[in-house]
Write a structure and sequence with these properties.
5-stranded parallel beta sheet; alpha/beta; 39% helix; homodimer; Rossmann fold; 224 residues
């Protein structure tokens, strides 16, 4: 049985340690050979990464951290400029626009695609979802389709992009995660990167709302 | 006049310092605000980069070097494994396959796209050409079209990919460069990275052949 499971592990995943990608990691664990966390100097990298390491350890999935130093130097965003720069408010407010990291998913997917081809892995998973569409153009279905085509055309193996949450909401992800027993207490979302979730920034508000809408108890400790 | 020229400088270029991208840099100099050299630890990075710096200095174009340390660690190729690993022979032989760096153009284009959006630049130029198609999937027209679509869809500005040499040969590039006075002596191609071009590796053979086919005198000093 164990050998059969190993044989179909043909995918990598872009894995932050947040709620969305942790749910995807658990859901697709039978197919995931490698989890890749990108450290682009975001405020919350440390807390998220600790969750990422722990979940990979629990599932026995190889985990690597790829450091992208060029972000801080050449691609600006409040997400990489210290926690004071993070706006408080709802996730879809205009002020969340400052948290956009230009073409971040394109960059992470391209590097993951190169690593996947190097290792003979056929797919790269990413956990973008419907709630991201309003603010982040590189989370939308049109981007996902074009990037999938670019990855297939640009590799010998025809590496595929799989983004199964593109058209569902964060509340749907919470429901799916709860159904398969994801330990949400070991996921981290807050853009401020404090010891506890701040409860006030856009991602904290979105996280709370998703649990409420899904009707799933929220195990998160919030500061407020 | 100077101000008019400055006003239309709306593009970045992926610029190695090789023959192809130097010709493109000269040809599109009126539109190029930023030249980006990626250092992914290839054997010939030092020599090529010196040419890149010099040509940008001559044209008054800002030049940045983006270091990509993850390549050496996670994406293998003979191009990043020391000069002894570079095969000798023709450019289209099977043994050149070892010089493929998985999804290199996808990775460089994605990062350049993020930097372009950060700076408000509308396009990214790349100098892939028809002779690369046989070996490198991420140089082909199908990849270029899909990547252009991904960049447009994944950015606020709709950053475009411009690859004007995709369907022409390296000999055609030499002709175009000669016509506009490119100083080919200040370009570097050899995958071995020595003081002079080795004259035997696939890229040196391709370079010699391109000058011969174009009927343009080759100013390159070859070791053999």
């Amino acid at each position: 049985m164990q050998e059969q499971k190993t044989a179909v592990k043909n995918a990598a995943i872009i894995y932050s340690g947040g709620l969305d990608s942790t749910t995807l990691l658990y859901e697709m664990q039978h197919r995931i050979a490698l989890a890749i966390t990108f450290d682009y100097g975001s405020n919350h990298a440390g807390r998220e990464m600790a969750c990422a390491k722990e979940n990979c350890r629990r599932l026995g999935i190889e985990h690597i951290v790829v450091e992208l130093d060029f972000f801080r130097r050449y691609i600006r965003s409040s997400l990489t400029s210290g926690s004071d720069a993070i706006p408080e408010g709802t996730y879809d407010d205009d002020n969340m626009r400052s948290t956009v990291v230009p073409f971040r998913n394109g960059i992470m997917l391209s590097i993951a695609c190169g690593i996947a081809e190097d290792r003979g892995l056929e797919s790269v998973f990413i956990a973008n979802h419907g709630g991201d569409h309003a603010i982040y153009p590189d989370c939308r279905s049109e981007f996902v389709k074009a990037m999938d085509a670019a990855m297939r055309a640009g590799t010998y193996m025809g590496v595929r992009l799989e983004a199964p949450y593109t058209d569902i909401s964060k509340a749907d992800i919470v429901k799916r995660g709860a159904a398969i027993g994801v330990d949400f207490a070991h996921t981290y979302s807050c853009y401020k990167g404090g010891g506890h979730h701040c409860g006030r920034c856009g991602t904290c508000r979105e996280r709370k709302e998703a649990f409420a809408m899904a009707g799933v108890p929220d195990p998160t400790v919030y500061d407020n």
